[in-house]
């Protein structure tokens, strides 16, 4: 089913208008029988984008599969904060093996299900950006090229947050981390664009999403479950600890990432872009960067207008490349 | 059924008889013939719905086995050498999670210098990974150990590594008695996992465990290995009852009854050692041989029962711990505190362990506590001289090969 055309956001506010919709179009989270895959009481930080993204994504996957699913988790924040045994926040069958092997473990689970004729049960792999674009990348690429029946979700908070905010292959230019200190921050011209690399594998479905547009996130999980084979969903999940933002700004900063063009939200089938989320109200990258103290060195005295201009240029390129502005 | 066949083919046929549901394959010599044969067997439809997954690395091979095993499938993979090391993190994970994966290790040296030939430095390096390690003396035993491995692994919820000498066994054509499907089905019943990823009964597997219970969880792994010390001989006994031949078990002696000196070794080198023992026996020497089929868990009591009264034990090792010497010897010394235990490091990187060298060793007066069999001491001395002569002496391995080729 394509995404509903209804505008959910009232102009000037960000309220989701579930009450205005017929029940079948309402959010998964609006349903009293939602999966609640990641229950409350876990140990995520206040304002954690990953906890929010994971709950929405897995609940949407539960809805799409009728609860017939198994989750495979890489080592990282999500794993650590959700399973401090004897407590587990997971209401689905869940396995954690290692940091760098979640896609391969998911491959194995899918292979076992296929061998046993249990193709009604679907597999979702998940990990942070470090586990996905760095240490787990070979396994991820192998899973893609073989076309194993797995939806792999990367919760991208742009650094190794679990170990205390070190640079990853997904850390953006100029961002300060514990291993890319100021002056300078992270270098330009580095880093991996995992969604585009996933598309280069010509897998059935690749999409990006953010926790600022949770209806879109839910739609993309559901859409991904329409396909068999390897699928990839890359979700931007701000991290108050690592981005040095207020916990109350998680949604806002994610929205500004898309409104500035720095994080394009799109979907692609078979290696071709089939849909983009247009920017409703374009903003300069300054508005996004200023909220985050990991970029504070750009706004010191004197400000690094040259660096900000380079970041703006990359946002402008995204906007042109993906047609983000009408 | 008796057949003349390559060791790798025999192992592949046997693994197929065990009805694996997921096979993960990545090529590395000298293991490759096994997974090649299994790909043909799977493609021919002989394994029903078995999934044969061509993965991108050994790390992925074992990781996919972990996922498949946790989802309730009987799994198999094979590797060797660098591949086993590349799996190392997943090895500990598989045993820590208690997943009964069976893997063949076609024993091969570890580089640098890169070397594809046989020794035991790969599996010895994973001694403490929590896997049961069984060593095959012959291709027949390799076949039989795979059947026993699945029975053991699934009974104990522990992964089992069946180690067979690369090339010496994997590529050797020998007469092998392959079991029948009916026999194997009776010996290895359908896998019933203790833990399984099931949407109808959700569990979390692989949670973080802190200081409050980590010791106990790890101790349980040790306890299961101690249980394996009971189960390995029991499985070997029921195997003998069902298949009519002795295979496996913990330890085996050869002409040890009145022996004063016993040569102990793991794997195929025992064949050569037995020949030497026979020859020395003919000339009246009181010598015998012994082998450890199980190296992990280490059969202290069984070894003591077999060799407790012996005065001299010579451990022939196909690997060593740099800066120390013998790896197996350390455990043998602990098992036999009254015996004089000597270490002979032999057959590294495929160097033949000859009867002449072994005979010389056993008939020489008092061997050193640590001997490197057939070591070319002059070659080493010349390289040490080059190293002393100038700072930039260059890469040693290449220097020594050039030296051997006559280039000084």
Automatic annotation (TrEMBL), chain A:
InterPro entries hit by this protein: PorB-like, THDP-binding, TPP_enzyme_TPP-bd
SUPFAM superfamilies for this protein: Thiamin diphosphate-binding fold (THDP-binding)
Any GO MF annotation of the entry: oxidoreductase activity
Coiled coil: none
Keywords annotated in UniProt: Oxidoreductase, Pyruvate
Thiamine pyrophosphate enzyme TPP-binding domain sequence ranges: 75-234
Gene3D superfamilies in the cross-refs: 3.40.50.970
Domain of life: Bacteria
Pfam families: TPP_enzyme_C
Protein name: Pyruvate ferredoxin oxidoreductase
Protein source organism: [Actinomadura] parvosata subsp. kistnae
UniProtKB/TrEMBL annotation, chain B:
Entry's Gene Ontology BP terms: response to oxidative stress
Signal peptide residue numbers: none
Domain Pyruvate flavodoxin/ferredoxin oxidoreductase pyrimidine binding: 17-231
UniProt keyword annotation of Oxidoreductase present: yes
Matches recorded under InterPro entries: PFOR_II (IPR033412), Pyruvate:ferred/Flavod_OxRd (IPR050722), Pyrv_Fd/Flavodoxin_OxRdtase_N (IPR002880), THDP-binding (IPR029061), Transketo_C/PFOR_II (IPR009014)
Coiled coil segments of this chain: none
A Pfam family reported for this protein in Swiss-Prot or TrEMBL: POR_N
Descriptive protein name: Pyruvate ferredoxin oxidoreductase
Gene name as annotated: porA
């Amino acid at each position: 089913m394509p995404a509903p055309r209804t505008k959910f956001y009232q102009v000037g506010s960000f309220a989701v208008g579930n009450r205005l919709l017929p029940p079948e179009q309402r959010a998964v989270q609006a349903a009293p029988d939602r999966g609640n895959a990641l229950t409350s009481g876990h140990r995520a930080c206040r304002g954690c984008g990953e906890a929010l993204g994971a709950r929405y994504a897995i609940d949407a996957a539960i809805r799409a599969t009728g609860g017939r699913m198994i989750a495979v988790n890489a080592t990282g924040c999500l794993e650590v904060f959700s399973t401090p045994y004897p407590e587990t926040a997971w209401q689905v069958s869940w396995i954690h093996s290692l940091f760098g092997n979640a896609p391969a473990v998911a491959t194995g689970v899918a292979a076992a299900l296929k061998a046993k004729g249990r193709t009604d049960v679907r597999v979702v792999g998940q990990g942070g950006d470090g586990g996905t674009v760095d240490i787990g990348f070979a396994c991820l690429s192998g899973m893609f090229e073989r076309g194993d029946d797995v939806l792999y979700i990367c919760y991208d908070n742009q650094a190794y947050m679990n170990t205390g905010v070190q640079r990853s292959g997904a850390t953006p230019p100029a961002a300060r981390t514990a291993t890319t200190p100021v002056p300078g921050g992270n270098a330009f011209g580095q880093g991996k664009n995992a969604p585009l690399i996933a598309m280069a594998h010509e897998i059935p479905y690749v999409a990006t999403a953010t926790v600022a547009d949770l209806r879109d996130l839910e739609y993309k999980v559901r859409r991904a479950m329409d396909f068999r084979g390897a699928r990839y969903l890359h979700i931007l999940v701000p991290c108050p600890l690592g981005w040095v933002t207020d916990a109350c700004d998680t949604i806002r900063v994610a929205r500004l990432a898309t409104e500035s063009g720095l994080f394009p939200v799109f979907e692609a089938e078979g290696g071709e872009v089939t849909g983009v989320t247009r920017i409703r109200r374009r903003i300069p990258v300054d508005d996004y960067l200023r909220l985050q103290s990991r970029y504070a060195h750009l706004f010191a005295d004197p400000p690094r207008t040259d660096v900000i201009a380079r970041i703006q240029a990359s946002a402008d390129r995204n906007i042109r490349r993906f047609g983000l502005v009408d | 059924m008796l057949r003349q066949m390559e060791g790798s083919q025999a192992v592949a046929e046997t693994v197929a008889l065990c009805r694996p549901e997921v096979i993960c394959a990545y090529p590395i010599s000298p293991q490759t013939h096994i997974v090649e044969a299994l790909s043909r067997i799977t493609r021919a439809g002989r394994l029903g719905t078995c999934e044969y997954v061509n993965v991108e690395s050994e790390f992925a091979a074992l990781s996919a086995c972990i996922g498949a095993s946790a989802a309730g499938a009987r799994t198999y993979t094979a590797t060797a050498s660098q591949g086993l090391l590349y799996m190392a993190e997943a090895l500990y994970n598989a045993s820590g999670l208690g997943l009964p994966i069976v893997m063949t290790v076609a024993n091969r040296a570890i580089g640098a210098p890169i070397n594809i030939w046989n020794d035991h430095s790969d599996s010895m390096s994973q001694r403490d990974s929590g896997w049961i390690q069984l060593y095959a003396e012959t291709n027949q035993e390799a076949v039989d150990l795979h059947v026993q491995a699945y029975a053991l692994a699934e009974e104990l919820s522990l992964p089992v590594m069946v180690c067979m000498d690369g090339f010496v066994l994997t590529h050797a054509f020998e007469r092998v008695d392959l079991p029948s499907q009916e026999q194997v089905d009776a010996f290895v019943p359908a896998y019933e996992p203790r833990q399984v990823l099931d949407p109808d009964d959700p569990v979390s597997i692989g949670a973080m465990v802190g200081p409050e219970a980590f010791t106990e969880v790890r101790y349980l792994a040790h306890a299961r290995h101690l249980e394996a010390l009971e189960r390995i001989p029991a499985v070997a006994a029921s195997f003998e009852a069902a298949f009519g031949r002795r295979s496996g078990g913990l330890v085996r002696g050869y002409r040890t009854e009145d022996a004063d000196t016993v040569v102990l070794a793991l794997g195929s080198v025992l064949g050569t050692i037995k020949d030497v023992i026979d020859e020395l026996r003919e000339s009246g020497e009181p010598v015998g041989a012994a082998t450890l089929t199980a190296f992990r868990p280490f059969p202290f009591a069984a070894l003591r029962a077999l060799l407790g009264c012996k005065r001299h034990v010579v451990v022939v090792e196909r690997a060593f711990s740099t800066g120390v010497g013998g790896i197996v010897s350390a455990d043998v010394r602990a098992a036999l505190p009254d015996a004089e235990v000597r270490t002979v490091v032999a057959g590294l990187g495929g160097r033949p362990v000859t009867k002449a060298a072994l005979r010389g060793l056993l008939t020489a007066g008092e061997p050193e506590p640590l001997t490197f069999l057939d070591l070319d001491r002059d070659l080493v001395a010349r390289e040490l001289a080059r190293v002393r002569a100038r700072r930039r002496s260059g890469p040693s391995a290449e220097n020594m090969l050039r030296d051997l080729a006559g280039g000084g």
